[in-house]
Structure prediction request, 130 residues.
Amino acid sequence: MDINKILVCVDLTPLSLKALEWAKFLAQKLGAELVVFHELEDVYTMIKTSASFGMPASPDLREKAEKSVVDKLTPLLKGCENYKLIIEAKGKTADRLIEVVNDENPQLTVITIEYERVVTKLNSQVLVIK
Prediction:
């Protein structure tokens, strides 16, 4: 089986950063594209809550949060030449992970044990880091 694309779900916890290390290592060894997925759950919740109260969320809330994530991830991806960041604020990480895997179609998905409950719903081989 050829592995051309590896997707890793990163929520910036220490364990997810370990998952990123593994995914990066495997991508480099296999010459695969690395797709790093991060869901801005807090931003999604704040925007949704603000709307329900009829109060707009800060217009640059999402952009600031996204920049913060990029600033944290970029140094960790040093040496990895073929990667793509997917940073969004569209819902719960576990739910969005299933959709992102379907959209990206990786041969391998690296997740932490926190998301193990969705393994059977992922259309990919899965490496669970614990």
About this structure: The chain has one domain: 5-129. Helices lie at 14-30, 41-52, 61-76, 93-104. The longest helix spans residues 14-30.
